[in-house]
Amino acid sequence: MTQKRPIKILLNEDLNHLWPTKRDLIDELSHEFPNVTFQQAYTENEQQLQIVDADATFGIPASNIFTLNKQLKWVHHPMSGFELEPNHPIIHSKVTLTNAPNAHVIPMAEYVFATMLSITHRLEDHFKDQRSKTLDSTKYLSSVKDLNGQNLGIIGFGEVGKAIAKRAYGFGMNIYGLSRSSTSSKSDIATVWPSSQLNQLLKLSDWIVIAAPLTNETRNMINSKNIQIIRKNAHVIVLSRPHIINENALITALCNGQLAGAVFDNLEGKWLEPSSPLWEMKNVIITPHTSSMSWNLEKDRFNIYRHNVNSFICGDQFIRVADKSLGY
Fold it and tell me: What is the bridge-based pairing of β-strands 174-179 and 190-194?
């Protein structure tokens, strides 16, 4: 890309706060790309002023800010999925939107099995025994379950879903996936159905993992009606986003003993208040949206951005171009 003036990239989000390291990432980028001005603008007033002549932004600008720009060509979202405001002007614009998928795939897949094995092998009870200095193997007789032979249903058979399936295959599980595709398929690892077969997957599964992005199609796809067909011995793992499953219906089912248990890595609203019954439920695991965190996550996401900055300067093809209408 040839320009008479330095390229201006507006930083709507602080890289050093987002990806904390011992290095100053903004300073590092400035040294690596001396012909680029990385303009920090973290308040709405600063963004309104600075976006006018920006060529690109790090972070998706709000609608009212986006419309002030006259020459924006590229926007980078530092995470995987995103929820745009209704009728956000970027959707139908020619601005390229990139994101950072796949960096989180391996840790999220491993998180699923960390929680599953914790439940099947009753690790919480073992930890309590250890702290009370009590070792009694008899109470675990016939209560520890194998994953081998159990049915795993994966809602959302993208990169995360496939990584989960690959690991489940090693445990000898029967794997069923649900994807946006309109056709069914079968491989050595998994049987994959279109989303129209959701109820079939819910009926079969001992473990249900929600790994789909939140879209208009997936919002509330597991509702108060079809949650009733899930097996009583089943566990639900909410991995990706809230609102794909009706949380009120899910928690009612847990309280009524209609489900064996649940794992929430992404939970919002009243269910996180101190008065929520979830905190005290023995069959529930809650984590603060940490399933994607690993030693390599920040490094991988930063390297995706660095690669695309170089592509933008050189006029090369971007990696990780997002679908603006789908939100990932």
Answer: parallel
